[in-house]
């Protein structure tokens, strides 16, 4: 297949850049099926930008008093219900089941 230089519009700056026959041959040899979308300047600028960080989800934590031993413990998203709430140690000792979020699968 004979490659020829072609003009491509940069999606960032809007200017046309040349996608050379040599570059097309290289892309083809690597199995790339899509032409580049950015000119060299915009591509380099994009690579030097810091990556967008997706913040981790932070759980709301409440402090409770264990109904068995009286110690304070931290629990995630405590709903103030009338049920008995144990610290981790008492929960293990009593064999109390672990409460899960209603939408969470057990597995």
Concise account of the structure shown:
This protein is of the alpha+beta class and about 110 residues long.
Helices and strands, with pairings:
Blueprint (H helix, E strand, L loop, with lengths): L5 E4 L6 E4 L1 H9 L10 H9 L12 E5 L6 E5 L11 H7 L13
Antiparallel strand pairs: 1-2, 3-4
Task: Describe the protein's architecture and organization.
- The protein has a two-stranded antiparallel ribbon with strand order 1-2. It has a two-stranded antiparallel sheet with strand order 3-4.
- By secondary structure, it is an alpha+beta fold.
- The radius of gyration is 29 Å and the shape is rod-shaped.
- About 25% of the residues lie in helices and about 15% in strands.
- Strand 1 and strand 2 form a beta hairpin.
- The protein is built from three helices and four strands, in the order E-E-H-H-E-E-H.
- The protein folds into two domains: about 45 residues, no CATH class; about 35 residues, no CATH class.
- The two termini are about 55 Å apart.
Q: Total strand count, please?
A: 4
* String of helices and strands: EEHHEEH
Q: What is the helical fraction, as a range of percent?
A: 10-25%
Mean pLDDT: 81
Q: Supply the number of structural domains.
A: 2
For the biggest sheet, the summary is: 2 strands, antiparallel
Q: What distance lies between the first and last C-alpha atoms, to the nearest angstrom?
A: 53 Å
State the main characteristics.
rod-shaped; 107 residues; alpha+beta; two-stranded antiparallel ribbon
